[in-house]
Design brief:
single chain; 303 residues; mainly alpha; two-stranded antiparallel sheet; 9 helices; 2 strands; 3% strand
Length: 303
C-alpha cells in the first residue's frame, strides 16, 4: 500500500511538495498596508490643507509645501510597508525541517511580495478613490501655495507659444490705447475692433518670434499716437513699456514653469527612492515577524 505523496525524491534528497509561498499572509499584509496607506494619505491631505490659505501671505511657500509633501510620502511608504511586511511574516505557518537561512530568505520574499501587491492595489484598484478624495485636496493646496504669480503669467506663456489669452492680451492692448487725458471722453475710434485686432496680432506674433521688428514697433507707435492722443515720442515710450511688461511676464511664467518642473522631478525621484526603501523595510519586517512567530511557538512548545 503506497502512502499519499507528500514528499518527492529529488537527487536522493526529500523535497516538500508544498509551495514555499504562503499567499494568505501575503494578501493579508498587502491589504493592511493598502488600508494604512489610504488612512495616512487622508491625514496628509488634511495637514496639507492647513498649510494654505486664500489670504495673501498666510500660506506656506511652494518649496515648503513640496518638501512637506515629499517627507509625508516617505513616512506613508515606510509605515505601510513595515506593517504589511510584519504581518506577512508573523501570520505564515512554521516551516519545519528547513535551514535558518532558507527561512530568512522565504520571509524576506514574503515581505517583498506583500509590498508589491499593496503597491499594485494602491496604484490600481484604489487609484481612482485616492484621486477623488486626496487628489482634490492636494491639488487645491498646491495651487494656493504656488501663488497668484503663476495665474497672472500663464497667459504670457500662452502668448510665447503662439496662443492667446483674451483677458491678459486684451489688458496689454488696452494699455496701449489708453487715452492720454482720462478725464475726457475716449477719442473716436478708441474701441475700433480692427485696430485692436491688428495690435493683438502684432503682439502675439512678436511674442512667438521672441522679438518685435522695427516695422511692427513703429506701426504700433503710430496706432497708439492716433488713438490715444499722444505724441509720436510718447507713443513709442508706451509701446516700449508694454513690450517690456509682456517680456517680464513671460520670463516670470518661464521661471514658474521651470520651478514646477524641478519640483515634479524631485518629487518623482524621492517617491521612487522611498518605494525602494519601503520594499527593503517590508522585507526586514517580514523577517522580524517570522522570527518572533517561530520563537513564540518554540517557547509555547517547551512550556
Amino acid at each position: 500500500m503506497v502512502s499519499p505523496v507528500t514528499d518527492v525524491e529529488v537527487s536522493g534528497a526529500r523535497e516538500s511538495s508544498l509551495s514555499a509561498v504562503s499567499w494568505g499572509p501575503i494578501v493579508a499584509g498587502a491589504f493592511a498596508a493598502s488600508t494604512l496607506t489610504v488612512i495616512l494619505m487622508l491625514i496628509g491631505s488634511g495637514l496639507g490643507l492647513t498649510m494654505v490659505s486664500p489670504w495673501t501671505g498666510a500660506s506656506a511657500s511652494a518649496t515648503t509645501f513640496a518638501v512637506s509633501a515629499a517627507v509625508w510620502l516617505v513616512v506613508v511608504q515606510w509605515l505601510s510597508s513595515g506593517l504589511g511586511g510584519y504581518l506577512a511574516g508573523r501570520l505564515r505557518t512554521k516551516w519545519v525541517g528547513i535551514h535558518d537561512d532558507e527561512v530568512y530568505f522565504r520571509d524576506t520574499a514574503h515581505g517583498f511580495l506583500a509590498w508589491a501587491l499593496a503597491t499594485l492595489l494602491v496604484a490600481g484598484v484604489l487609484g481612482s478613490a485616492l484621486s477623488a478624495t486626496v487628489g482634490a485636496g492636494v491639488q487645491a493646496a498646491s495651487n494656493v501655495a504656488s501663488g497668484a504669480a503663476a495665474g497672472a503669467t500663464s497667459a504670457a506663456t500662452n502668448a510665447a507659444s503662439g496662443t492667446t489669452d483674451g483677458n491678459t492680451l486684451g489688458y496689454f492692448v488696452d494699455t496701449l490705447f489708453r487715452p492720454a487725458d482720462t478725464s475726457t471722453v475716449a477719442p473716436a475710434g478708441q474701441n475700433d475692433a480692427g485696430v485692436t485686432a491688428q495690435a493683438s496680432r502684432i503682439l502675439v506674433a512678436s511674442a512667438a518670434r521672441g522679438e518685435v521688428s522695427v516695422e511692427d514697433k513703429t506701426y504700433l507707435a503710430k496706432l497708439v499716437a492716433s488713438r490715444a492722443g499722444l505724441s509720436q515720442a510718447d507713443a513709442e515710450k508706451r509701446v516700449d513699456s508694454v513690450l517690456a511688461g509682456m517680456e517680464d511676464a513671460k520670463n516670470k511664467a518661464k521661471a514658474v514653469a521651470d520651478t514646477a518642473r524641478k519640483a515634479s522631478a524631485t518629487f518623482a525621484l524621492v517617491g521612487a527612492l522611498s518605494m525602494i526603501v519601503g520594499a527593503f523595510i517590508a522585507s526586514i519586517a517580514a523577517v522580524l515577524g517570522g522570527k518572533q512567530r517561530d520563537e513564540d511557538e518554540a517557547r509555547f512548545v517547551r512550556g
